[in-house]
Automatic annotation (TrEMBL):
Signal sequence range: none
Protein name: adenosylhomocysteine nucleosidase
EC number: 3.2.2.9
Enzyme superclass (EC): hydrolase
InterPro entries linked: MTA_SAH_Nsdase (IPR010049), Nucleoside_phosphorylase_d (IPR000845), Nucleoside_phosphorylase_sf (IPR035994)
Residue ranges occupied by any Nucleoside phosphorylase domain in the UniProt entry: 2-226
């Protein structure tokens, strides 16, 4: 089984509507829909925005459904001159940019307990998705670090800071929480993000306009590549 997690309805409803033989279960206030998607057994969940919501959803999914891999799919803000609205970013690693115990001597983003700043995604998944996406995705495909924090970034100075400090290509609010839970449970994961805005001063306007389009591109891509992952 493959687990798919999205933060917002626009990121998961298109997937749930395509599930065959769907069965739905509610756990801790979250809805999990299980069925066949593109011929592959999947469980799809809407976690709601933010790291705590994403972590809760991921642990529930792993505990109750035992997926062999988890994909966190959705939209994100792009970082850097080469990342444009409509592009796709595949995570090589994820970081929590708002985790900061540097006053105690740690580096910014350091995660106590697992001793990492960058949580690596499955290299095999990244390579497979990168190869397949370049053939089917209508837009540029990038691989790199995705930065997560409990903030909607719409500030050019903050945007440049994330690029400088973490080498991030995109920023969002769930991926690194999903990654951390998968890491401690020894479950492969990858984060897929279609770019809805450039996380700058125009981000709010761009997001409203382009998020539904970007989300649909991600849904279409997932449905195309799932058989490659089975």
């Amino acid at each position: 089984m493959i687990g798919i997690i999205g933060a917002m309805p626009i990121e998961v409803e298109g997937l749930k509507s395509r599930l065959q033989n769907s069965q739905t279960e509610n756990l801790a206030g979250l809805q999990f829909s299980r069925g066949m998607l593109s011929g592959v057994e999947c469980v799809v969940a809407h976690c709601n925005p933010g790291k705590v919501n994403a972590a809760l959803c991921t642990q529930l999914m792993i505990t109750h459904y035992q997926p062999r891999l988890v994909i966190n799919s959705g939209v994100a803000g792009g970082i850097g001159a080469g990342i444009h609205i409509g592009d796709l970013v595949i995570s090589t690693a994820v970081v929590q940019h708002d985790m900061d115990t540097s006053p105690l001597g740690d580096k910014r983003g350091y995660l106590s307990g697992i001793g990492l700043i960058e949580i690596p995604a499955s290299e095999k998944l990244v390579q497979l998705l990168g190869r397949t996406a370049t053939e089917v995705y209508k837009g540029a495909v990038h691989t790199g670090v995705i930065a997560t924090g409990d903030q909607f970034i719409c500030d050019s100075a903050k945007l440049h800071e994330l690029g400088r400090d973490f080498g991030a290509l995109a920023c969002e609010m769930e991926g690194a929480a999903v990654g951390q839970v998968c890491h401690v449970n020894n479950v492969d994961f990858v984060v897929l993000r279609t770019i809805s805005d450039n996380a700058d001063d125009d981000a709010k306007m761009d997001y409203t306009t382009f998020a539904p389009i970007a989300a649909q591109r991600g849904i279409d891509l997932l449905c195309r590549i799932l058989p490659e992952l089975s």
